[in-house]
Amino acid sequence: MKSEGPATLLYAALASELAELEQRGLTRRRRVLETPQGARVAVDGREFVSFCSNDYLGLAAHPELIEAARQGAADFGVGAGASHLILGHATAHEVLEQRLASFTGLPRALLFSTGYMANIGVATALLGREDAVFADRLNHASLNDAALLARARFQRYPHLDLDALARLLAASRARRKLVVTDAVFSMDGDIAPVPDLVALCERYDAWLFLDDAHGFGVLGPEGRGVLAHFGIRSPRVIYMATLGKAAGVFGAFVAGETEVVESLIQRARTYIYTTAAPAMMSVALQKSLDLIQGGEARRQHLRALIARLRERLQPEQWRLMPSQTAIQALVIGSSGAAVAVSEALAREALLVPAIRPPTVPQGTARLRISLSAAHTHEEVERLATALNVLQ
After folding, report:
1. Which of 62, 140, 177, 214 is labelled catalytic?
2. N or C end of the chain: which has fewer CB within 10 A?
3. pTM over 0.85
4. Is 214 a catalytic residue?
5. Strand 132-136 vs strand 153-157: parallel, antiparallel, or unpaired?
6. Is residue 204 domain-shared with residue 349, that is, in the same domain?
7. Coil, strand or helix at 133
8. Exposed, middle or buried, 69 (CB in 10 Å: 0-12/13-18/19+)?
9. Could you list the residue range(s) of the whole structural domain that residue 325 is in?
10. Residue of 245, 287, 301, 375 marked catalytic
11. Is residue 9 situated within a structural domain?
């Protein structure tokens, strides 16, 4: 009989932890997507209407983006081959950064491979032990991890509680203060009160770091994001947005004052010590910016779908969170119940993910309904009807 050595005990402990997750209804499983991302997909051999993706404008498989990527591959190859600071920064990257700065109305922009890396790069490059981070309690996990890695004092305030934030800022004696918040909260769909946050940062001499992952391309005139949505211009703002959601491709960028962006180039480890994203994607993203800027019809259709869902969905025992964005959260309660509703919808060929702790607070497991301009009114009606029947 094989004896149990230290390695065996280590794996037994992991197996026990995994079994506990399964028992609590918190195990995550992957579905296998067999088609391009879109409102209608094939998964695990079946066809579904998908309300799972962040492809808010329906651009992920747009033929003009596919053609731009092909041209980019022909011009630049399929791999960057080096970090931006060695020899991986191509003309396509440079042009895209200039266009993103102009599009957002900020002095400079810097590309990152992912939004997670961008958030960590900003916090760790600009902050240290003498500094402080003030974070909304419902911020995305990447913002929380960024604050912890920066080793600054990390203080969280209740969701959207600006009075609590003001008290924390007033009491702080930190060298640098950074208020960090989702612009559109990824699990609730509500929008941060950016003008009020800017005013607080002005009063207490702080930066405001906005994660506009779910607003860029959708909010504001021509989809220019949350700053344009509120008509805000401020040197206090450091702005991050991702390029794999409404923009339909991949990556992220940070935009802000010249000194901020130059500091990131010199000090952000998640920028310095990683291979640049393929230049072909920057070519595709330049075309994506064209489609976003000229995509008001898509945004109007998306807003109409949001209104239709909120009008038709009549939750009795569940709670539809207040949101005027493409993220519509239907709070079910327990993890088991949320999974059961999600599975019932899947049997009707409707894919809606169940979001459970620790992504959301205990007792607030939910369906996260993501709407896209690629959906039809009939598909949204079908979803609302199915949910009304399941209550």
Report:
1. 214
2. N
3. yes
4. yes
5. parallel
6. no
7. strand
8. buried
9. 29-57+295-390
10. 245
11. no
